[in-house]
Amino acid sequence: MTVSTETLRLLESQAIELPSWAFGNSGTRFKVFSTPGTPRTPEEKIADAAQVNKFTALSPSVAIHIPWDKVDDYAALGRYAEDLGVTLGTVNSNTFQDDAYKFGSLTHVDPKVRQMAIDHHFECIDVMNQTGSEDLKVWLADGTNYPGQGDIRGRQDRLADSLAKIYARLGENQRLVLEYKFFEPAFYHTDVPDWGTSYAQVSALGDRAMVCLDTGHHAPGTNIEFIVAQLLRLGKLGSFDFNSRFYADDDLIVGAADPFQLFRILYEVIRGGGYGPDSTVAFMLDQCHNVEEKIPGQIRSVLNVQEMTARALSVDTVALAAAQEAGDVLGANGIMMDAFYSDVRTDLAAWRESRGLPADPMKAFAASGYQAKIAADRVGGTQAGWGA
Amino acid sequence: MTVSTETLRLLESQAIELPSWAFGNSGTRFKVFSTPGTPRTPEEKIADAAQVNKFTALSPSVAIHIPWDKVDDYAALGRYAEDLGVTLGTVNSNTFQDDAYKFGSLTHVDPKVRQMAIDHHFECIDVMNQTGSEDLKVWLADGTNYPGQGDIRGRQDRLADSLAKIYARLGENQRLVLEYKFFEPAFYHTDVPDWGTSYAQVSALGDRAMVCLDTGHHAPGTNIEFIVAQLLRLGKLGSFDFNSRFYADDDLIVGAADPFQLFRILYEVIRGGGYGPDSTVAFMLDQCHNVEEKIPGQIRSVLNVQEMTARALSVDTVALAAAQEAGDVLGANGIMMDAFYSDVRTDLAAWRESRGLPADPMKAFAASGYQAKIAADRVGGTQAGWGA
Amino acid sequence: MTVSTETLRLLESQAIELPSWAFGNSGTRFKVFSTPGTPRTPEEKIADAAQVNKFTALSPSVAIHIPWDKVDDYAALGRYAEDLGVTLGTVNSNTFQDDAYKFGSLTHVDPKVRQMAIDHHFECIDVMNQTGSEDLKVWLADGTNYPGQGDIRGRQDRLADSLAKIYARLGENQRLVLEYKFFEPAFYHTDVPDWGTSYAQVSALGDRAMVCLDTGHHAPGTNIEFIVAQLLRLGKLGSFDFNSRFYADDDLIVGAADPFQLFRILYEVIRGGGYGPDSTVAFMLDQCHNVEEKIPGQIRSVLNVQEMTARALSVDTVALAAAQEAGDVLGANGIMMDAFYSDVRTDLAAWRESRGLPADPMKAFAASGYQAKIAADRVGGTQAGWGA
Amino acid sequence: MTVSTETLRLLESQAIELPSWAFGNSGTRFKVFSTPGTPRTPEEKIADAAQVNKFTALSPSVAIHIPWDKVDDYAALGRYAEDLGVTLGTVNSNTFQDDAYKFGSLTHVDPKVRQMAIDHHFECIDVMNQTGSEDLKVWLADGTNYPGQGDIRGRQDRLADSLAKIYARLGENQRLVLEYKFFEPAFYHTDVPDWGTSYAQVSALGDRAMVCLDTGHHAPGTNIEFIVAQLLRLGKLGSFDFNSRFYADDDLIVGAADPFQLFRILYEVIRGGGYGPDSTVAFMLDQCHNVEEKIPGQIRSVLNVQEMTARALSVDTVALAAAQEAGDVLGANGIMMDAFYSDVRTDLAAWRESRGLPADPMKAFAASGYQAKIAADRVGGTQAGWGA
User: Fold this and answer.
1) pLDDT at residue C388 tops 70
2) Which residues of D touch A150 (CB under 8 A)?
């Protein structure tokens, strides 16, 4: 057997949160392609997300986005989710789609706009209180397009002030996770562009403020697993947004562009204590299925993470440490590659079956008829997307 | 005087084509901000473009985009433009917004979709015949997001076939210019990703097929002026799409991100015979004014090109050649930098006035009241953007 | 069995040329670390290279570099190699280490320096005539560090002229392969920086001039397999220099940085007819073992290529084509990933044994005592490196 | 007058430290070109550095590098410098050229090697005590080339421990500045790759540990002025290593590759209080003059910094703040560009003359005959470089 019993045991508790918006339409500035069966409501998104969990038992919770998932009764939405076997997870704020935010939100030079953005986060915390969500995720699109357009330094100070106000509103069991992003939608400077900035900002807030690492939000060539190791070491890795990219923030399926990088990232997660029941690191997907089917796209994604975690858990760490101490470069690298090249899929399929899950979740979902059903049922209304 | 009489003489005939779509709304996949006064029709876009020419005498023509600028009577549109002192220029095709093109257009595996895309180009040529436009510009968004999604090689062969059919339809005085782009909207492979591909494809077509170089469409670190020099040497530089970028295809104002790069590009244009009355190289803008005002954004852009051309024309080429031959690295570089650091703005302002133009076109436009007028007049309707 | 009989049959004739210089010392501008047993002579390099072939049967030839491998009698060197079971392959020229080449070689503004560089290539052709080598590989380090230092356009014209003179000297069965490189050692412009330039230059020479693709010589994010597909389509892919990189031209072990990229490259090689007995594409390594052991580093490298070729040959091309035609993005991608994730190592080990080779060449070499022997024997003299 | 009296006053105290090694030979891994007159001793390097100050009054101190500048009597070396009008500045350690450091120095898995590296820094502090230097600069080349080669997390912990030991040895008026670098000489992971890591490490040490920002040590596209603003805000910007780059760590003349970037960096320095008599930020050059003359290369460099500082000081900050508050994107950007495009050279030349300096230091040095004299005098011996 390629995958050890111990590895399987450790995989049992793996949970990867799904983003509700992955089930809606997405695209580029050039075109958003629509697809039959796309959800029109938060409930339909959650129903689709529940399918992913049904076939994989890997995604017991769904992140929501305010206002994209705005409803009148969040407690009812939570009960709806629970009836489908999932819970509501991280609440994501949105300060990039109101006309008021053209020149910034939490960093805006105008205190009224800043307060509006702070109030929006208060609203998100209210939602969290209703849904029982523990994490408030802040991805800040703030930035400028031209040198001189904004005062980089002043914006950073205002950001610190705004975040402090939001942080003060959090409950005792709630966290704020601050996501960084290299660029886009701003094209000259971004106010939280790198892990260092997110780290400096959340460190100033307190213990329940953490960094969110989106795997697609780095400069070309960045060694992401190094950042993982560093943030775990500093006790500030709050959560992951998984996806993959060849160029910019492509938001492709996690593991699709550079599977070996995903392996190395997961290895450092495990190495640094970020994996397992004692870890507080949250694992999420944040992807766009622009041209592929969305539910299978999410199934493929959680399976990719599961399979790669199995490989990363399989590294012979004792032999690796020995090779590292001996300065045996090829030997140490070979131990990593052995684990990476191991084909864990057969063992995982058998293990899934032993747990009452389909051996091949992709095939099982395709055979379920769910996609055809929603394509037939969901007629009329407005398909969900980023604008709604 | 910093700018020589000879340089001023050479600047007289400078013409930079404006894209009609620069006057409509644009943005990112996250948000398109609208602005008061944004045109609702092709006519209103042309009217705005004519303002740029009125204040600068630098932009006598306007590129149109089909179907964004679709009208019933192109001849009438041309007369409308001429009444405003401009002409209609390059016709840009669009094969990226129809649902049929989700998996490609000219490269699509399905011959019916390919024919649909070819027919669209035939339609564009029909428009050219009515407007008297000489250039058909093909920017191909075709590509794939995942390894295996498409057959890279087969798509290239089909592209060649499709382009041949389009090329065959061109009139004797018409050209096809094929734009390349590193990535976006496709995130794994793009069918025309680099100048080499565009060059190979247009070389197979014939003398009237040329490469279009968009300054924002390259990998990080690419030496663009080298490509300019090479394409001029090979006789295949058809046109420029000017803009600037810090990261990806940011589409910022030309010269805004790296003015020295613009200087070097224009120097190689001049060095290679691409500037002046005998050149067939077409100069265009292709930008997005996501957060700044659009008409002043275009005025600023053509002025940037004019000012940088003045600097590039000021290089002491005799001294430069001598320094190069002598292996005088610092001397040769110093000659380039002398021209770049020369402040040509005062001389150009005086020269503008001598030609009956405002010394400061930005101020003159602001003082004209045009922006307030269109903001007041253009009420109702749907503001133009990329989707319309 | 994971690897099919047909795949094994196709693997039988695989040959990957080794660079003699991989067995000498290499490093960075900061430090070259020396290691016990490093060859002092061309003969010792060839002896080490022969070990790689002895344990893998994958590397029947050795590329040499003039003047690093300069000897009095190349025919004797060839016989020496043959006695060890290998042949001499590609001859690599060097026009970057003579003081005369500070400002260029084949592109130099001074005709005397150009002639010196051309003469060096004539000398290389003389060597080829003695060794029976078929390929003359030209990697041109020419370029400039500062804008203005050289005349980009003029240098390109002189390059064309110099190459034409070299090409004219080639025998009927000899080829010139022109390698491109994004940057380094020049830091502003490089005279052959991209595949387009190499393609344009070799196309002007004739049928026996081809492009050499070094996998480490591209801008960040470049889709290398696209270039492979394009060059094969254009009939101009002459050879590969295999290595891998995370940042610049890191010259790491092939497949070490991004194994999935190597898979995609080899898939396109096979797809485009570049693999197998009818192909004229030459496969070489070009790597630096700065910190790892050199002979095992080369063994690991050829095994990486072999294993990844086995995976690439395993792609179900019929199913893939069907999925591509159906627009089944996830299905098509899944077929690629299935092949990539297949663990071919057990089958290849068995196959090796069936051919009288060690199942695990790395272990077998380690057990052979060769490394200890050369460390003990090669005392005194000057270890080979790039300077010698 | 373009440059205001206030700006000139602020320029009076500008000081840019020169690196002694800039006067020795440097190059790439492919070739180090030597030049007539290159120093053979620390004294000769200092003599050359003093020439830069003599002609510019901009570089009153010289950084030294141990062991490249090892002498028996540092006090005597200091007096020698003072006789030439300069002082000894930052002491740079070197833990990348001893064979013991092949797999790391301060991060090495072997405590003996770590202690050796710590001891080397103690030696550097001893030198500082003799020279009166205030800054100990640590650039750590530590890293690995292959995944698995080292334990990223453990290395980081060991680094913290080693740095703490070094920091404890510092005198009350001494600082430790920790330089970060994206990559090279390590090609997979670097132990101090980004500002975040340097910031986290120095923050753990204490008030006298600071970050060193080398302008060439970032991923492609990184907004360096943002980092400047952030580090100043956090009170942790210790020093600059100025140079410029198009690709990797090219170490070209500061301002040569992207003068506008230098302008933006200096603007943020001034904006954040990093410029002027109250600032503790140290400004240094760290460049390689591989193909250009070294003394003029350094003169050109300090002039570039001076001229660009003059431009950055000329920004109309009151108007800029007003435009920023008004959301006037083009206006705010225009204010920045106005300052950047101002030609300050004539005013600075006049100001230099008023202070008894040559109007054109490049010309004055060329006319001085110094280069010819050292070329004639410095015969024999071994030219200084990175290996000595």
Assistant:
1) no
2) 324, 332
Q: Kindly write down the DSSP assignment for every residue of C29-75, as one continuous string.
A: SS-B---TT--SSHHHHHHHHHHHHHHHS---EEEEETTTT--S-HH
What is the C-alpha separation between D213 and D262, in angstroms, rounded?
13
Q: Nearest Cβ partner of C343 from A259, A330, A342?
A: A342
Query: What is the DSSP secondary-structure string of D112-150?
Result: HHHHHHHHHHHHHHHHHHHHT--EEEEE---EESSTTSS
Query: Which residues lie across from A189 on neighbouring strands?
Result: A144
Residue B338 lies in a domain: no
Could you tell me the residue range of the domain that residue C114 belongs to?
A: 11-314+358-377
Q: Please tell me the distance in Å from D245's CA to the nearest CA on chain B.
A: 10
- Considering only CB atoms, D30 lies closest to which of C96, C147, C220, namely C96
Rg of chain D over CA atoms, in angstroms?
Answer: 21
User: Residue holding tokens 């290369």?
Assistant: D297
* Residue D39 structure tokens: 């120093």
Instruction: Mark out chain C residues that contact chain A at CB-CB < 8 A.
Output: 2, 220-221, 223, 246-247, 256-261, 291-293, 296-297, 300, 307, 329-330, 333-334, 340-343, 345, 362
Rounded to an integer, the average pLDDT of C172-188 is 98
CB atoms A330 and C300 under 8 Å: yes
Structure tokens, A356: 């009452």
Q: What is the largest CA-CA distance in chain A?
A: 66
D105-151 pLDDT tens trace:
999 999 999 999 999 999 999 999 999 999 999 999 999 999 999 99
CA dihedral B290, B296, B297, B302 (to 10 degrees): 160
- Residue C129 corresponds to which amino acid? N
| Rg of chain B (C-alpha set) | 21
Tokens standing for D165?
Answer: 């030991």
Does the residue D319 lie in any domain?
Answer: no
CB nearest to D28's CB, from C31, C185, C256:
C185
pLDDT of the residue at B64? 98
The residue of chain B with its CA nearest to that of C199 is: B196
Contact C159, C191 (CB under 8 A): yes
Reading the block at residue C195, the tokens are 């595949």
Chain B residues with a Cβ under 8 Å from any Cβ in chain A? 26-34, 96-97, 99, 102-103, 141, 144-147, 149, 182-185, 187-188, 220, 245-248, 250, 252-253, 256-257, 290-292, 386
**CA of C11: how far to CAs of A192, C225, C259, D180, in Å?**
50, 20, 19, 45
How crowded is residue C161: how many other Cβ atoms within 10 Å of its Cβ?
A: 14
Q: Which of C94, C126, C185, A93 lies closest to D246, judged by CA?
A: C185
CB pairs under 8 A between B and C: 152
CA C58 to chain centre: 14
Whether B3 is covered by a domain: the verdict is no
Among chain C residues, CA nearest to B219 = C219
Task: Give the separation between CA B295 and CA B289, rounded to whole angstroms.
Answer: 9
Q: Which element (helix H / strand E) includes B56?
A: helix B42-56
Query: Which candidate from C220, C256, C258 shows the least CB-CB separation from A220?
Result: C220
pLDDT for res A1: 76
Structure tokens at D316: 């109309």
CB D226 within 8 A of CB D272: no
Per-residue pLDDT, B6: 96
Query: What 3 state SS string does A307-355 have?
Result: HHHHHHHCCCHHHHHHHHHCCCHHHHHHHHHHHHHCCCHHHHHHHHHHC
- ipTM of the complex model: 0.98
CB atoms within 10 A of CB B263: 25
* C173 touches C208 (CB < 8 A): no
Domain contains B331? no
Q: How many domains does chain A have?
A: 1
Pick among B308, B340, B341, B347 to test the D interface (most D CBs inside 10 A): B341
Q: What is the CATH number of the domain that holds A52?
A: 3.20.20.150
- For residue D187, the distance in angstroms to the closest alpha carbon of chain C comes to 6
